[in-house]
Amino acid sequence: MSTALLSALAGATIQDLYRELLLRIGEDPSRDGLLKTPERMEEALKFLTSGYEQDALEILHEAYFESEYGGMVVVRDIEFYSMCEHHMLPFFGRAHIAYVPNKKVIGLSKFPRLLNMYARRLQVQERLTEQVAHAIMQTTHAQGVAVVIEASHLCMMMRGVEKQNSTTSTSTMLGIFLSETQTRSELLSILAPRGRR
Ligand SMILES: Nc1nc2c(ncn2[C@@H]2O[C@H](COP(=O)(O)OP(=O)(O)OP(=O)(O)O)[C@@H](O)[C@H]2O)c(=O)[nH]1
Ligand SMILES: [Zn+2]
């Protein structure tokens, strides 16, 4: 890209860029239905990438409660929407987050908040899974953390290979979930589809 073009782009707003994009795909950005579209797109993009402005400590740091609970906590079926970094198309599905506390439990709502934070960045499913697991482990010093994500990728559905029914599963196991087969088996039996337990 030429220096002149780069400096011209640097002065452009996100809405200018979206207007140009509409022109390049053969649309007329001045027609009635599209007049406010660059503004709407900017707003949507800011929301969908708002995770860059947050960090895990900020989300988790005031929601620890002392507890002697020594079992496993599993928050399952947390729905999420993210965008793949390759095509900037959505991938979405469900996450299951489990941990074994270490004298402190975390407010349950913080798990979906943490997932949303990482999901609202350009992602690959593998990294999303790892980031959620490591953030919980590092901030809470839990005995173990496990994150399982099942997702459908629109870049594999509405374009490319056009497969409508495939889903992708990823999992990250840390601490006791890695070292103890029994703990891992307990989690897998909790996550097994109902009727197959
Ligand atoms: N591992 C991983 N791959 C992803 C994820 N989301 C999208 N992809 C893949 O990223 C790859 C990008 O491959 P490229 O060959 O560079 O792009 P492409 O030509 O658009 O690929 P096709 O989708 O096969 O048409 C594709 O195989 C996508 O399926 C993800 O979360 N994890
Ligand atoms: Zn993609």
TrEMBL record:
Keywords for the protein's UniProt record, in alphabetical order: GTP-binding, Hydrolase, Metal-binding, Nucleotide-binding, One-carbon metabolism, Zinc
The EC number(s) attached to this protein equal: 3.5.4.16
Q: Which residues bind Zn(2+)?
A: 84, 87, 155
Pathway(s) = Cofactor biosynthesis; 7,8-dihydroneopterin triphosphate biosynthesis; 7,8-dihydroneopterin triphosphate from GTP: step 1/1
Q: One Pfam annotation, family name?
A: GTP_cyclohydroI
Cellular component aspect of the GO annotation: cytoplasm
Instruction: List GO molecular-function terms, semicolon-separated.
Output: GTP binding; GTP cyclohydrolase I activity; zinc ion binding
**Per its UniProt record, what SUPFAM superfamilies does this chain match?**
Tetrahydrobiopterin biosynthesis enzymes-like
Superkingdom as given in the UniProt entry? Bacteria
Q: Which GO terms describe its biological process?
A: one-carbon metabolic process; tetrahydrobiopterin biosynthetic process; tetrahydrofolate biosynthetic process
For the GTP cyclohydrolase I domain, which residue ranges apply?
15-190
Coiled-coil annotation reads none
Catalytic reactions of this protein: GTP + H2O = 7,8-dihydroneopterin 3'-triphosphate + formate + H(+)
Regarding protein family, the annotation reads: Belongs to the GTP cyclohydrolase I family.
Checking PANTHER family in the record gives: GTP CYCLOHYDROLASE 1, GTP CYCLOHYDROLASE I
Q: Assembly state and interactors?
A: Homopolymer.
Which HAMAP family does the record associate with it?
A: FolE
Protein name as it appears in the record: GTP cyclohydrolase 1
